[in-house]
Amino acid sequence: MNPFHLLGTWFLAECEATGQRAYLLFQTLWTLFDALSKPRRIVVQMARVGWDSFPIIALMAVFTGMVVGLYSGRALENVGGERTQATIVSVALVKEMVPILTGLLLAGRVGAAFAAEIGTMNVNEEIDALTTLGVNPVSYLCTPRFLACLVMVPALVAYGNVIGIFGGAAVGSRYFNISYDAYIRIMADSIDARDILEGTTKAFLNGGIIAIVACHRGFRARGGAVGVGNAITGCVVDCFVWIFVANYFVTFTF
User: Fold this and answer.
1) How far is the C-alpha of 223 from the C-alpha of 230, rounded, in Å?
2) How far apart are CA 168 and CA 172, in angstroms?
3) Does residue 46 register a pLDDT over 90?
4) With contact defined as beta carbons under 8 Å apart, do 159 and 54 qualify?
5) Average of per-residue pLDDT across 202-217
6) For residue 210, how many other CB atoms are within 10 A of its CB?
């Protein structure tokens, strides 16, 4: 129970896991063209990641836009700058709120599902069976999910940005007498290509993080149902941590 021993053990385990994920990413990129030759599996995963997530992303985005709009509008109302609310809402959503919240939601919804599926296959020795049959488990299981996340997470973020901005516009129109036309004009003047690129970069990285962390946790699951449960929990926690870390470095870079 020496705390230094526990801290050192945890640190070494995290370093090992990070190295394993880097190697899994290398394997995934190496098998990219092999997976692209079988597009059906990628399309199936894209539907799971993207189409099935549209309702929850819309719900998150519209209420996030409305809440940010209320807070900023109330704060600026006292100084007569409530029209600046449109600028705050659009920039906050595009650069930070929607990419981060979308990544967290998909980590819990999609990442947990990936970890559960691959972890169950692993503890049931189905992955060993794939290897015996000459099928590369990374190409068959990880690469289609990785590609689906890379494509669909930025698409979901773009969709969430539109929904969130209209949520903020509804609040501005209802409570602060800002017309929809004026709101859209202010928003268009406030956001430039650099802001959109920053949000898209965060979405792209979040998609890769979710896929790699989830697949790694699934491949490393051991110990039956308990091991699968631990893989799901670890996947969600690790995704959250890495999403926040990546968000900081992208924000710092831009």
Assistant:
1) 10
2) 6
3) yes
4) yes
5) 96
6) 33
Separation of alpha carbons 162 and 173, rounded Å: 16
pLDDT at 1 exceeding the cut of 70 = no
pLDDT > 70? residue 80: no
Query: Are 86 and 190 spatial neighbours (Cβ–Cβ below 8 Å)?
Result: yes
Element (H, E) at 63: helix 54-77
Neighbours of 41 (CB within 10 A): 17
Domain spans in the chain, listed from the N-terminal domain onward: 24-53+88-154+190-253
Residue 23 to residue 4: CA distance in whole angstroms: 29
3-state secondary structure of 12: helix
Residue 114 is encoded by which pair of tokens? 């990936």
Q: Are 168 and 86 in contact (CB under 8 A)?
A: yes
Tell me what pLDDT residue 98 has: 96
What phi, psi does 59 have (nearest 5°)?
-60, -45
**C-alpha–C-alpha distance, residues 32 and 26, integer Å:** 10
Write the single-letter amino acid at 36: L
